[in-house]
Sequence to fold (634 residues):
Amino acid sequence: MANRYWVASTAGNWSDTANWSATSGGSGGASVPGPGDTAYFDGNGLGNCTLDVAINVSSLRIGSGYGTSVLTATHNGPHAVSGDMIFDRGGANLLTSTWTIGGDLKTAGARYGGGWAADSSTITFTGTSLLLLDYNVNLFGNVELAPGAYVTVDTLWHRSGIWLTENKWLKIRKNATLYIKHGESQIDTGTIAGTGLYIEPGGALSGAADKQFTVHMYHLQYGGIQQMDGTIDIPKLIWRPYRGYVVPARYDSATVQLWAWGSARLNLEPGDYVFTGDFTTSDGTMDFNYYSNDVNLEFRGDVRINFTTLTWRKGAGTITLSGANDQDIDFNGAAVEDIVVEKTAGTVTFTGPVTTDSFEAGGASDDSVLDFNGQEIKTVGDFTLGPNTQVVAV
Amino acid sequence: MALAGSIITVGGDLSLTGESDDLLNLAASDTWYLNVTGTATASYCDVAYCDASGGTQIDASDGTNIDSGNNINWDFGVATADISGSTAIVFDASGNLSGIGSVAGSTGVTFTPHGNLTAIANLSGQSRLAFTTDGQLSGLAALSGTSDLAFSATAKPSGIVQLSADASITFGTAGRLSGTANLSGQSQLVFSTTGKLSRTASLLGSTALRFASAGRLSGHAHLFSRRQFGPRIGTRQVQV
Fold:
C-alpha cells in the first residue's frame, strides 16, 4: 500500500510514471498507482490527467487544490476503485468508461472545479457507499449496484440527486439497496432496448420519509420498469410515461403516482400488480393499459384517478380492493374490469363514479364495510353483496 | 352521504345477502336507487328509501327481510310469526305487524297507539290481541277459548271476525266492526258508547252482542237463542 501524488504541471497520461511521485510535489518517477494504492491529485500538479489505461487503485482523492483540472477517461476500463473516490475540487469526464467503486463517491466539489461529466459511463457500486452529490453534478450514465451493495444517495441541494440521463438503466442487483436520503432522484429511460429500472430478487429501492423516485418513460417497448422482483418502497414512486411500460409486481411505495406526460400511454404487461399504498394520478391525458393486456390490479390504499381525459383499456383481469386500511376509491367514471372487495378490515368509500364489469363484496374472504357515498356505481354484469360485508346506510 | 343519493345500476343480476343475526343494513335516511336489468333477490336485508322503480322488482319475499319503509318496487311478501308461551309483544309506537300466524297460550300482542295488523290472526287459549287508539286489524281474526281481541278508542277491524267458545271482542268508544262477525259458543261481541256493527253478524248459541249507550247495528244480524241488545236497533232487519 502506497500513496502516489499526481505532479504533472501540464496534461499527461496516468500511465506515465513521470507524472507520479511518492510525495506531494515531489519528483516524478514513482510507480503508477496500483491496487492498494491511493492516488492523490492536489495543488502540486495541476495538469489534466488522461486515464489512458484501466486503473485499479484503493482510493482516488482529488483535493481542493486541483482547481479546475480534469480527469478524462479515454480508456474504457473497467476502472476499479476499491475504496473511496472523492472530488473536493477538480472534475471528471468519464466518457464511455466503466467503473467499479467499493466505497464512497463524492462529486460535490466538482461543481466548483472542472465539472462532472459521466452521462455515458457505467458505474457499478460494489460495497456500502455514500453517494454525495451537489447541484448540477448529479448526472450519471448507467448505474448498477452489485449484489449485496448498499448505496445511500445524499445531496447538498434539495433539487439534486441521482439523475440518470435518457436511455440509461439502473440495475439493483440481488439483495442490493439504493436508499435515497436527500434530494430528488430519477431515471430517464428512453428508446433504446435494455434501458430502464431493474430490481432483482431481494433488491430494494427505498428512501427517507418525503423522498420520491421518478421513472420517465419514452417508449412502450423499451423504457420503464423492466424488472421488479425486489422491493420499491420509496415513499413516492412516480411513473411518468410519454410512452412506456411497467412490469407486474408488488409496489410498496406509500404512493405510486401516475403522471401524464403529454398525451401519455402506459402499457401494463399481463400479470398481477399489487399496490400496497395509494395509487394516484396527475391530470392530463392518459391511455391506460394501452395494449389491453389481461392484468389484475390489487389496491390496498386509496385510488384517485384524476386524468382529464382517460382511456382505460380493459383486459380480462380483476380489480381487487384489499388490505385492512380504509380506502377512498375514485375511478373518475372509468369503465373498468370486475371489482372484487376482499378486505380483512376497513371501509371502502367510493368518492367517484365507476362502471365495472361486475361488483362483488362480502364473500368468504371479505370483512369489509362499504360506503357508496352517494356515488353512481354501474355494473355491466352482476352486483353481489354477500353476508361478510356491511354497508354504511346512514 | 352514505347510501342516500347513491345510484346502483346493475346490468346483470343483483344479489343482496345478509345474515340472520346480522342483517345487511340498507336502511338509508333518504332515497337511493337500484336499477336492475336481470334478476334481483334480497335475503336478510333491512331496507329503507330504496327506489328500484328503474328496473326489475326486488324479490325480498322470503320472509327474512325488513321493510323499513319508503321502498319502491320491492316485494317483501307477507311475513308471519307464530307467538306462543307467555311471550308478550308490545308495539308502543307506530309498529306494524304484517302478519301473525297464530297467538296461543297466555301470550299477548299489544299495539299502542297506532299499530296495524294486516294479516290473519288466530288467537286461542288465553291469548290477547289488543289495539289501542287507532289500531287496525284488516285481516281475519279467529278467536277461540278465552282469547280476547280488544279495540279501544277508534280501533277498526275491517275483516271477518269469528268468535267461538268464550272468546270476546270488545270495542271502546267509537269502535267499529265493518266486517262480518260470526259468534258461537259463549262468545261476546261488545260495543261500548258509539260502537257500530255495520255488516252482517251471525250469533249462535249463548253468544252475546252488546251495544252500550249509543251503540248501533246497521247491518243484517241473524240471532238465535238468547241474544241481548243495547238501546238501539238500526234500520236493518233483525231476525230472531
Summary: DSSP finds no helices and 31 strands in chain B. Chain B has two domains: 7-75, 82-239. Confidence is low (pLDDT under 50) at residues 223-240 of chain B.
